[in-house]
Amino acid sequence: MEQTYFRKGFGLKGQIQGALTDDYHSAVVDELRARGYQISVDDLTVRLAQEFGFCYGVDRAVEYAYEARTKFPERRIFLVGEIIHNPHVNQKLATMGIVIIARSAAGEFDFGEVRASDVVIMPAFGVTREDFERLQGIGCVRVDTTCGSVLNVWKRVESYAREGFTAIIHGKYHHEETKATASQVTQYPGGRYLVVRDMTEARMVCDFIGNGTGGAELRERFRPAASPDFDPGRDLVRVGIANQTTMLSTESLAIAAELRRAMAARYGDGELGAHFRSFDTICSATQDRQDAVLRLLEDSVDIVVVIGGYNSSNTNHLAALCAEKLTTYHVEDAACIDPAAGTIRHKPVGQQQETVRRDWLPPGKLVVGVTAGASTPNNKVGEAVERVFATRGITLAAALA
Description:
The chain is an alpha/beta fold. It has 3 domains: 25-55 and 284-400, 3-Layer(aba) Sandwich (Cobalt-precorrin-4 Transmethylase, domain 1), CATH 3.40.1010; 56-147, 3-Layer(aba) Sandwich (Rossmann fold), CATH 3.40.50.11270; 149-278, 4-hydroxy-3-methylbut-2-enyl diphosphate reductase, catalytic domain (Cobalt-precorrin-4 Transmethylase, domain 1, 3-Layer(aba) Sandwich). It contains 15 helices and 17 strands. The protein has helices spanning 13-24, 27-34, 56-71, 87-95, 129-138, 148-162, 176-185, 199-211, 215-221, 232-235, 249-267, 284-297, 313-323, 378-391, 396-400; strands at residues 5-6, 38-41, 44-48, 77-80, 98-101, 119-122, 141-144, 166-170, 193-196, 239-243, 276-278, 303-307, 327-331, 337-338, 343-346, 355-358, 366-372. The strands form 4 sheets. The chain has a 5-stranded parallel beta sheet with strand order 1-7-6-4-5. A 5-stranded mixed beta sheet has the order 2-3-17-12-13, sandwiched between helices. Strands 9-8-10-11 form a 4-stranded parallel beta sheet, sandwiched between helices. Strand 14 and strand 15 form a beta hairpin. Helix 6 (148-162) packs parallel to helix 7. The chain is globular, with a radius of gyration of 23 Å.
């Protein structure tokens, strides 16, 4: 019988390495690393964060997709949503004949075209248990690229559900990863979850824990972000904390501390273990990139360019960290920087729409910090750096020759 579920690769990395290098390698990034993560030409310096771009989980997911195309050259291959939150990478997979399954208007993936003879790639964020079971029922080959850090969160919330604790997840309830995580809870009888977006929402939960009032308002507020039939009076007696792996770690830890205080105040320190569990599930790569950009901000930088998909949670958090201290431009792709026009097309922190800024690169001596989200390939980082220099009329390749 043919094996239909793959999670550990096909052993074809040697065959795909050339294609990966051609598609994502950057000589500019290599040069930046060799020069201590900065390049200076005339009065312009570009300084790169020392942790940036593709993380291990993203590397693995992209490699696995390339391996799947090599392993099954004659088969139709589908991808559930986006492999990662980077338009360049997803478009590249599409050119390889991998068909991206989009969500319907109702928010569900339509697997109507998938047949048992097809191959389906599951993304780095994972898929819900319901979607996993639907694909299993079709009998197609499933290539699972779910990140190991995400799997660790799943194990954590599963343990909460088994032990009768409601999983409170710091994340975005509409995000693919959070949807998949929440679905791990409801496989257990009585499994419950609640997704809080930020400290404001967490404090609403804490207020209810403290005084027991406002349950109807809480149910209405969190209706799309909670398990079916969520009942605050029943489901906030025992809670366990987890988080979407790409959230801002300082906020996740603060939310956990706030909920711990609320439970201790309600039930007493001596009973806290019976009512509260917590575990930091921020992935190490997300933390490393956040720490690195904070170090970059301390290094005499004037403005910052953050490169990565606008729907990338970890990239948006990097931009938010930078914007707290300096003028910051979050660009989805290197093409957002137009040297000829002297413009940058970017999404301001906290906004949903792009805007265009002219004369964004001030004259005179200047240090531009650069970082990139975990879904951004090196070639896009290198292209952005080249375009920053080109905005000052500097051809980087000629300057470095």
